[in-house]
Amino acid sequence: MKKANIIAGIIGMLFSGYAWAYTYKFKQFKNVPVGPEFWPRALAIGLFFLCALLVAVNVVSVVKHGDKTKAPTINIFAKTEEGRNLRKMLVAVAVTVLLAFLWQYIGFLIATPVAVFFLQWLLGNKNWKSMIIYSVAVTAVVFCVFKFLLGISMPLGFMEYWFY
User: pLDDT tens digit string along 87-108?
Assistant: First the structure.
C-alpha cells in the first residue's frame, strides 16, 4: 500500500508541475497585480507540497517497516455504496471537463447553470425549483464577480457580441 501511495504522490507532483507550466499560456494583463494564473498556481503549489509530503511519509515508513500491506482495490462496477460513489465522482469530473470544453462554444452563461444543475441532481438534490434558482444565481454571481469586480472576461461563446 505504501508503494501505491508513493506512486500516486509522484504522479500528483508531475501533474502539479504540468498545471504550473500550463499557467504560462494564460493571457497576461497589464497593470493587474493578480492575474488569472494566480489561483491555479497556488493550487499547483499546494498539490505539489501535499504530494511531496505523501511521498516522504511513505518512503520513511517503507524504510522503517517495509511494505507488507496490499493496496486496496476499488471496483467501479461494484454494487456497493463505494462503487456508486466512485461512479458519481467520475461523472462529476467528466461533467466538469465537458463544461470547460463547452465554455468556448456555448459560453459560460449557458454551460455553467446546466452543469451546476446536473451536479446538484447527481448529489441527490431533488427540489427542481431550488436547483434552477441556485444554478442561475451561482452563475450570475460568478459571472458578475469575474467581469465587474475582477475585470476578467468569461468565455461567452456565441453570445460574445451581446456583451462586448
Answer: 999 999 999 999 888 888 888 8
How many residues does this entry show for the chain? 164
Helix or strand holding residue 72 (H, E)? none
Q: pLDDT tens digits for 103-156?
A: 888 888 899 999 999 999 999 999 999 999 999 999 999 999 988 888 887 888
Cell output for 119: 451536479
CB atoms within 10 A of CB 139: 21
**69 near 1, Cβ under 8 Å?**
yes
Rounded Cα gap, residues 131 and 86, in angstroms: 23
The dihedral of CA 101, 17, 142, 148: what is its sign? Answer: negative
Using CA atoms, how far apart are residues 29 and 163, in angstroms rounded to an integer?
A: 20
Would you state the pLDDT for residue 164? 58
**Cβ atoms of residues 13 and 51 within 8 Å:** yes
